[in-house]
Amino acid sequence: MGDDAALLEVVSSANIACGFHAGDPDIMHATVAECVRRGVSIGAHPSFPDLRGFGRRAMDLTADEVRNDVLYQFGALSAFAAYHGTSVAHIAPHGRLGNLVATRSDYAAAVADAAARLNPGLIVLAQDGELASAAAERQLPVGIVGIADRAYEADGTLVPRGRPGAVIHDPAAIVERTVRMVCEGLIETVAGTDLPIIADTVLLHGDTPGAVQLARQVRAELENAGVTIAPLAQVLAAKEKVA
Question: Gene3D superfamilies annotated for this entry (predicted)?
């Protein structure tokens, strides 16, 4: 759906689909190999089993089913990482699952429990919310994600994709929002208010039209603003050192 190879020239960490909403064994193999070649940190991007809807539709799953689906997908990507002599550094739930773990404590606990059992040092990538709290309670490292091309509600959740304006397409607006989010810790909501936000990492969607050029613009403007771009583990290590 997007030019993954070109995006890997720009990003420092990659969320890799594990087959449930996108991706397949050949794609995972090739993407992990390219990440290793370029020094890009590898993250699992598990989702609801929703190939038809690209993981962006809600499914009525139990928390146990969510946990097992996450384990299954993480295991698949981990195998390719091991084959290429590396490991999965972080986990970032995708799409509708990613939205729901921010607000549903049972889903958040399911993902956090899976992560803690898989690797106590596994970074959990999440919006500020239930998953971030559940991961912190289990003493997992947490990276708070700022989403550059999505509109935020006043409560910090994302505007549902079915609503107009949920996805921001203006490159200049995305760049401006991202720099402000990272450098000032604020993002404007659809209500017109400023929302305090922590952005340890910035998420860009690879299927957005013009994603590669947009990623280049965002990176360039962040660097112009004095931001050092680094893999997520390095960012969190530097943050802990300052704290």
Answer: Glycoside hydrolase/deacetylase (3.20.20.370)
Joined together, the tokens standing for residue 134 give 């559940």
Residue spans of the chain under pLDDT 50: none
- Token duo for residue 126: 């999440």
Helices 25-38, 63-83: crossing angle, 10 deg rounding = 60
pLDDT score recorded for residue 51 = 94
* Residue that is written with structure tokens 């200049």 in the block: 172
Output the 3-class SS for the chain: CCCHHHHCCCCCEEEEECCCCCCCHHHHHHHHHHHHHHCCEEEEECCCCCCCCCCCCCCCCCHHHHHHHHHHHHHHHHHHHHHCCCCCCEECCCHHHHHHCCCCHHHHHHHHHHHHHHCCCCEEEECCCHHHHHHHHCCCCEEEEEECCECECCCCCECCCCCCCCECCCHHHHHHHHHHHHHHCEEECCCCCEEECCCCEEECCCCCCCHHHHHHHHHHHHHHCCCCCCCHHHHHHHHHHHC
Q: Which amino acid is at 242?
A: V
Amino acid identity of residue 25, one-letter, is P
Residue pair 84/32 in contact (Cβ under 8 Å)? The answer is yes
Instruction: Give the pLDDT confidence score for residue 153 in this predicted structure.
Output: 92
Q: Supply the pLDDT for residue 142.
A: 97
Count other Cβ atoms within 10 Å, centred on residue 225.
13
What tokens does 230 get? Answer: 């680094």
CATH of domain 4-241: 3.20.20.370
